[in-house]
Amino acid sequence: MHDVSHGPVAAAAFSDEERAAVYKAIYSRRDVRDQFLPRPVPDEVLMRLLDAAHHAPSVGFMQPWNFILIRDEARKAQVHRAFMRANDEAKGLFTDERQALYASLKLEGIRNAPVNLCITCDRTRGGKVVLGRTHNRQMDVYSTVCAVQNLWLTARAEGIGVGWVSIYHDQDMRHILGIPDHVEIIAYLCIGYADELYDAPELEIRGWRKRLPLEGLIFEEEWQRSAISSDPPRPDPATGLPATRSTCD
User: Fold this and answer.
1) What residues does each domain of the chain span?
2) Long-range contacts of the stretch 143-146 (C-beta < 8 A, 24+)
3) What is the largest CA-CA distance in the chain?
4) pTM of the model
5) Does residue 62 contact residue 143 with C-beta atoms inside 8 Å?
6) What is the pLDDT of residues 200-235, one digit of tens each?
7) What is the pLDDT of residue 108?
């Protein structure tokens, strides 16, 4: 594991090579769906990933996460059945044209990945009053998502693929994994070595959706209308009526 210093750390920038490695992990991170190899993940590597997740920022330093490792084939089969039930429901929510594309996507690697990992958020950790969560109760959830991202980026650096499974009924997963009501399920991840990674997100390559242009997502000082915003026009202060969109928005 990483040796963490408890003293002051210099705020100097990383070297060019170190900085390039950080950006490489970010830009080449992919959601691995079903390309996992049977090669096991060594315990020492898995612990490095979990240690990186454990060093995510957390509101009030409450560290609300827990990590449930699932390697038993029978339990993974239970999870897979829960996924398949929900996946059949999800497919029916799309239009006929999208249904065919949806059905062609391999959206999970539950059975193929050597390790499944459920990351949870214990919303009672730290007591009723938590520094930084007094006015935004979701901050503990956001903190746990940071742990997910830490693990995902370090997995990329280790040459390990990660897939996020989000299609299941919450109560099904709670029953299978014995998760109590006060603990929130944040992520169910498939983890393992992969034979290849796409140059771009698979959903972009397969035509599901394109990456939005960054310049259309940046606002100055306040919320603004943009060509890619799905929000309705803000009311005109003088009339109270919806403002007319300009071709210059």
Assistant:
1) 31-197
2) 143/56, 143/57, 143/58, 143/59, 143/62, 143/64, 143/65, 144/56, 144/58, 144/64, 144/65, 144/119, 144/120, 144/186, 144/187, 145/186, 145/187, 146/56, 146/57, 146/58
3) 66
4) 0.86
5) yes
6) 988 898 888 999 999 999 999 999 987 675 544 444
7) 74
Instruction: Give the pair of three-digit tokens for residue 238.
Output: 């003088």
Quote the crossing angle between the two packed helices 73-91 and 96-104, to the nearest 10°: 160
- Domain 31-197: which CATH number of 3.30.465.10, 3.40.109.10, 3.40.190.10, 3.30.70.120: 3.40.109.10
| DSSP codes, 184-233 | EEEEEEEEEEBS---SS-HHHHTTS-PPPPGGGT--SSS----TT--SPP
Other C-beta atoms lying within 10 Å of the C-beta of residue 127: 8
Three-state SS at 165: strand
Question: Who contacts 25 (Cβ-Cβ below 8 Å, separation ≥6)?
Answer: 153, 154, 156, 157
